[in-house]
Amino acid sequence: MSIKAVHLSKSFGEPAIKVLHDLSFEIQAGDFVALTGRSGSGKSTLLYLLGALDFPTSGHVEMGGHDLSAVSERELHRIRNQNVGFVFQFHYLLPELSALENVLTPVRKAVDFGVDVSSFETRGRELLVRFGLEGKEGRLPRHLSGGEQQRVAIARALVMKPKYLFADEPTGALDSANGEVVIRLFEETNSVDGTTVIMVTHDTGFAARARRQIRLVDGRIAEDIVNSAPSGV
Amino acid sequence: MLFLAIRHLVSRKKQTTLTLLGIVFGAAAFVAISGFMLGFQYFLLDQLINNDAHIRISAREDRVDSVVASGDLYGKSGSSSVVWVVEPSGTRTSPKIENPRGWDEVLSKDPRVEAYSPQFSTQVLFLSGVVSATGRMIGSEPDAQRKVTNIENYIKTGRFLDLAAGGNRIIVGTGLLKKLGAGDGSTVFVSTGRTQTPFKVIGTFETGNRQLDESTVFASLSDTQRLSGNQNEINNIAVRLFDFNRAREIARDWQSMAVDRVESWDEINASFLNVFQIQDATRYLMIGIILLVAGFGIYNILNVVVSQKKREIAILRSIGYEQGDILRLFFFQGLILGIVGSALGLVMGYIACLGLEQIKFGGGPMGGGAAMKVSFDKMIYIRAFVFGSMSAALASVLPARSAGKLTPIDIIRSGAE
Ligand SMILES: Nc1ncnc2c1ncn2[C@@H]1O[C@H](COP(=O)(O)OP(=O)(O)OP(=O)(O)O)[C@@H](O)[C@H]1O
Ligand SMILES: [Mg+2]
Asked: What one-character DSSP code corresponds to residue A95?
């Protein structure tokens, strides 16, 4: 269940500006990877390619042995729905829905794919409790604090028990205390559920707690190190 | 997606209500205006169709011009040398139907004919004491006549069938009787020229059409023929069909094999029917404009909403929602507005129609004091509903499609910047 980048390149615009240059690497199942680098180095771009949200200009991504560029449209959506969870810098919760309803949006869609969702509904509730949101399930996002909103978003990313969790600066909009809570949740998910976590971060402290650290410079891998003693794991 | 669509609508209460009102008014206006216009049309149509023949066969009118006149006066060979100082121009009305027996044959055998009534009608002068009035005497065989039109419905006193016995008896329009200062049972003198013949008033009728009520009397066919000295002649045949919609086609049929003039009810009343068409066009135009405005409102609002909701669309896409799901999310919003708005509009329109029905109007050709005729035809309601929902659905297609086309990363990237 590894993720494999094979000669991955990505260009934008006309004339094409190359943002990622022929990247090849593999991320093992259950790993915890921090993706670092300067602003504009291509971290987000790489993350979206690995997480099946975007498509490379050349090369391809293999997720659990399947070439993502070869799967059908339907299968792609199924993968996004069930195999992948995304957390962004901003929570992007639907303002009309309560915390619990937001967490369950992927479950709603899973029904279309013929999944028996009763266990996932229970899981959604449990995640909110686990994330310290007990009693706040019915609240609308605007009645939650920033840290709580981001935790609801993380619960939404995890409700389908995805194999891979992708996070793009998940602590970027939070204070350090709330940032710490988020990283704890990631570490816990990684160790308890065995979820592979790939996280873009500017925070060197958080990056140091990952098992593996990939640093990008101008769309190339400048450094790929395995942290000998990741503090949190 | 329906669930989320409803949530979206509910969370924008003010906007939703305003948009809804547009559709509500559109549908309500359609129902009310159509109810009122069609009510009037049906009423008039009913009068046109049932108060008179579906097809009228009448004596022919010929054009008279210099060629005809010269030929008649000097023969074919001599006519070329005639020079008119003032060219003759006019019509020659044949006083009678050329071949009544032939018509009898045709009409009695045609399965499309429900009934027909040979008539002799003539312009006469009515005299009662010192008062006189001009008018029209319609002579018919009452039993045939009552099957062709619904004259019997309008009889106020007396019995229409009593005319059959002959003996110079008439049934008079109430307006005419009043004009003459005569009463039921009195004797009225009728003149076609030199002589005056007494007729006994044995009944009255009132159609509500003032012009008719003030000028018409009914008599038996033989009495009328004798009065005008045209024994056994008729100048009109009124025909009732089983299906009045086929009148024009059947009239054409007959016209092709007869010298007499054959006209269907819709040809005779073409000017009325033209007015109806103009009314219909106006009605649809008005509704079109109202719904266009309402639809444009929906289109605008949804466009704004789609651009406001880009991030949410992106997140939905990133958790596996497909293009079609997003399209439906916004399309449903338009459709819900359309369906709910139209339904409310129907109710409002219905109430408005009930109100219109209470309005009385006086005078005019329909007679005084009649209530407004309002149609409650269910087609009006079906149309209003379909138009309302369709315009809303159509208006939401474009914004919904543009929302569906958004890809997850474009938006998230632009949102993060
Ligand atoms: N859709 C796009 N069109 C054109 N250029 C793009 C597009 N997306 C990204 N880029 C460019 O690609 C480069 C890498 O962008 P990317 O968002 O991956 O950087 P990043 O490492 O995530 O930066 P940050 O830390 O600021 O988030 C940047 O120079 C950016 O301007
Ligand atoms: Mg980035």
From this structure: T
For residue A54, the chain B residue with the least C-alpha distance is B409
Tell me if A42 CB under 6 Å of ligand 1.
yes
Phi, psi of B34 (to 5 degrees): -65, -40
Which member of B312, B407, B413 has the closest CB to residue A92?
B312
Q: Are B23 and B337 in contact (CB under 8 A)?
A: yes
Write the single-letter amino acid at A139: R
**Cα-to-centroid distance, B163 and ligand 2 (Å):** 102
Q: Residue B219 C-alpha to ligand 1 middle, in angstroms? A: 99
Determine if residue A209 is left, alpha or beta; phi over 0 gives left, psi from -120 to 50 gives alpha, anything else beta.
Answer: alpha
Q: Where are the extended beta strands (E) located within B129-223?
A: 131-140, 155-157, 169-173, 187-191, 196-205, 216-220
Strand partners, B387: none
Examine the pLDDT at B365 and tell me if it is beyond 50: no
Is A94 in contact with B318 (Cβ distance < 8 A)?
no
**Number of CB pairs < 8 Å for A and B?**
65
Place of tokens 């009385």: B360
Mean pLDDT of A194-217: 94
The CA distance from B402 to the nearest CA of chain A, in Å, is: 19
B164 class by beta-carbon count within 10 Å (0-12 exposed, 13-18 middle, 19+ buried): middle
The answer to whether the Cα torsion of B215, B217, B222, B226 is positive or negative is negative
The model's pTM: 0.73
List of chain B residues whose C-beta atoms are within 8 Å of the C-beta of residue A110: 320
Torsion of CA A158, A160, A165, A169, to 10 degrees: -50
CA angle B48, B51, B53 (to 5 degrees): 80
CA distance B319 to chain A (A): 5
Residue type, B143: D
Query: Which distant-in-sequence residues (6+ apart) come within 8 Å of B138 by Cβ?
Result: B119, B121, B216, B217, B218, B219, B224
Neighbours of B47 (CB within 10 A): 18
Counting ligand 1 atoms within 8 A of each CB, the residue from A8, A14, A19 with the most, and so the one to mutate, is: A19
Task: Judge contact between B32 and B211, C-beta under 8 A.
Answer: no
Q: Report, as an integer, the average pLDDT of B332-346.
A: 93
Partners of B409 on chain A (C-beta within 8 Å) are 48, 53-54
Neighbours of B30 (CB within 10 A): 28
Cis peptide before A15 (omega within 30 of 0): yes
Q: Is the pLDDT of residue B415 over 60?
A: no
Give chain B's contact residues with A (Cβ, < 8 Å).
3-4, 7-8, 10-11, 311-312, 314-322, 325, 407-409, 412-413, 415-416
Distance A56 CA to ligand 1 centre (A): 14
The fold for domain A3-94+146-226 equals: Rossmann fold (3.40.50)
- Model ipTM? 0.91
Question: Is A201 touching ligand 1 by the criterion CB < 6 Å?
Answer: no
Which atom of ligand 1 approaches the CA of A169 most closely? 27
Q: What would the pLDDT profile of B81-127 be if each residue is shown by its tens digit?
A: 788 888 888 776 667 888 888 899 989 999 999 999 999 988 899 99
Q: How far apart are CA B31 and CA B29, in angstroms?
A: 5
Q: Tokens 């312009």: give the residue.
A: B123
Q: What is the SS3 assignment for B404? A: helix
